[in-house]
Design brief:
The protein has about 90 residues and is mainly alpha-helical. The protein is built from four helices and no strands.
Amino acid sequence: MSGEVAIAIEKLKTLSAEQQREVLDFIEFLQAKTQRQLENVPEQERWLWQNPTAIAAVQRGIEQVRTGDRHSLGSFAQYADLEIED
């Protein structure tokens, strides 16, 4: 269990039973909403949104482009005629 989850659980324990129920109901609502949104993502793209490491890398790349933090990797012309298996 991550440290953040442990802290959240400890804070949850300090709430009344009614408050705990409200928090858990809200968490279930968010999970259902997230699942519905994920169902609208095309199957071939869904893996990205389900992979925190991959989506973080994409978001990092978008931020680098936004801030101008980029550099050339050179020409990829040598790969233009490379046979690719589908």
